[in-house]
Amino acid sequence: MTLKIHIDGSAPPYEQVRTQISDQARSGVLPVGYRLPTVRGLAEALGLAANTVAKAYKALEADGVIETRGRNGTFVAAAGPAAEREAAAAAQAYAERARRLGLDEAAALAAVRDALRAAYGD
């Protein structure tokens, strides 16, 4: 696993860690079951505070990218169907909220397109 943190970058360090691990896991560079370094170990290797790496790991776990197995460590989780189910649930929640807010379908879709462009850098 190779991570590069740019302190002068526009994204905070925890977000850089989160994004790079997520990208590597989804692309297969980090295979399912790959054991990640401990929070402290990765923090030391990157010259970051342990809380910074812990925040990234917590976000990755919430996204379903990694899973913590107690004292056994933190591993790359299986993606695919679980990630798709979570995305579908998030989309359903968004659709219901947009409707409650009184947005029509076109406005709701436009908001999603803008958010996706911002998230994916398009």
Structure summarized in a few sentences:
This protein is mainly alpha-helical and 122 residues long.
Describe this protein's structure.
- The structure is a single chain.
- By secondary structure, this protein is mostly helical.
- Helices cover 59% and strands 7% of the residues.
- It is built from five helices and three strands; from the N terminus they run H-E-H-H-E-E-H-H.
- The protein has a three-stranded antiparallel sheet.
- A hairpin with a 5-residue loop joins strand 2 (66-68) and strand 3.
- The longest helix has 20 residues, at 81-100.
- The protein is globular, with a radius of gyration of 17 Å.
- The relative contact order is 0.11.
Content of β-strand: 5-15%
| Total E-strand runs | 3
Mean pLDDT: 89
Low-confidence stretches: none
Strand order, largest beta sheet: 1-3-2
Helical content stands at 55-70%
Structural class: mainly alpha
Largest sheet: 3 strands, antiparallel
Distance between the termini: 26 Å
Shape: globular
**Can you write the helix and strand succession as a string?**
HEHHEEHH
Q: How many helical elements?
A: 5
* Radius of gyration (Å): 17 Å
